[in-house]
Amino acid sequence: LPLEERLQRRIVDGERKGLEADLDQALAVMPALDIVNTVLLEGMKTVGELFGSGQMQLPFVLQSAEVMKGAVAYLEPHMEKSDDEGKGTIVLATVKGDVHDIGKNLVDIILSNNGYTVVNLGIKQPVSAILDAAQEHRADVIGMSGLLVKSTVIMKENLQELNQRGMAADFPVILGGAALTRAYVEQDLHEIYAGEVRYARDAFEGLRLMDALIG
Ligand code: B1M
């Protein structure tokens, strides 16, 4: 198989052996971030489709996720870093009840590599933990990720909690994750949140939003 297809197969099949060698080959011909975005994420997309249509069982999805994480970790040192630092702080979390963290961790990498301080709280974070961390670290922005449809409701509740605590004016919020739509965030949630709330389709839009919100 050609290199790109081979890498995608590794993600879909959850096959880790030989991964590094293939990634080294890919690094010789394209930047690390392109490998993630154009090659590996396609593999994860296939995994999602297979799982969604019942052709792949959960333990295999988990294996695919592990290979994806291994690949991102291997590529991270090869990613471009800007010399900027201290541009601002974001508290980043996957919301309560949701374990999906590959996207969130990509956001962490992209923002960290571009001069932002990222306080990554991890997965299944209750709103209290997110808000406490935002205050403790004097965050400029709160970022929430979630991939389950259920998480889109939790995000709404979290924004209401920010309103109730009188924190909305101080904390712009960026939301991302596959179950969200731009309209849900920029219309529905925009209406209920007393501060700024924005939708990031991918990690790069997250970066652009950070630059816009803080810069
Ligand atoms: Co789950 N899962 N999963 N899963 N899983 C989905 C999300 C699903 C769509 C699959 C499907 O049915 N086709 C489906 C959700 C259905 C729904 O809610 N309507 C689903 C389900 C049902 C489940 C379980 C409930 C299955 C079960 O137990 N029966 C369970 C949930 C557990 C829980 O959370 N409580 C579950 C479990 C898992 C695994 C543990 C096996 C594994 C996760 C491993 C891990 O993350 N450590 C997993 C995986 C891998 C997936 C799919 C296949 C791939 C997700 C992924 O990593 N994509 C997923 C299918 C899909 O998404 N279509 C699926 C790659 C990643 C880079 O993309 O996270 O979207 P993503 O991030 C993107 C953007 O969204 C954005 O930037 C990234 C790209 O640059 N972004 C942000 C994300 N967060 C952002 C935050 C920002 C900015 C941008 O700023 C704050």
Automatic annotation (TrEMBL):
TM spans (from-to): none
Domain of life, per lineage: Bacteria
Protein name: Methionine synthase
Gene that this sequence comes from: metH
